[in-house]
Specification:
Number of helices: 2
Strand content: over 45%
Distance between the termini: 8 Å
Largest sheet: 6 strands, antiparallel
Number of domains: 1
Strand order of the largest sheet: 1-2-3-6-5-4
Radius of gyration: 12 Å
Structural class: alpha+beta
Shape: globular
Helix content: 10-25%
Length: about 100
């Protein structure tokens, strides 16, 4: 897991782990911690601290595929936010 500073809308993630085989980018607020997952309309998974609406992580499914196709990532958290490929590049290179 690499330390990064990735901002997606109002969210800032400071740790990332990229599974190149599965093309899944795991973003975390602090070190990974237990959480409750909820799928976004775009098919990604937000993780909340148990019993709260505090976002502690985001699993971006098909991260490179989405960025290559669209040039940006769109996530509903609950409002819709976007991040460009350049903004996510440090996390995808952290592997």
């Amino acid at each position: 897991m690499e330390a990064v500073n990735i901002r997606i809308g109002p969210l800032t993630f400071d740790h990332a782990d990229y599974d190149a085989d599965g093309d899944v980018l795991y973003l975390h607020v602090g070190q990974p911690q237990p959480g409750e997952g909820e799928e976004t309309p775009e098919g990604h998974v937000l993780r909340f601290a148990p019993g709260t609406q505090e976002i502690v992580g985001l699993a971006v499914i098909n991260a490179r595929q989405v960025l290559n196709r669209d040039g940006r990532l769109t996530v509903t958290v609950p409002e819709t936010v976007e991040a460009t490929a350049d903004e996510l590049a440090p996390a995808l290179q952290a592997a």
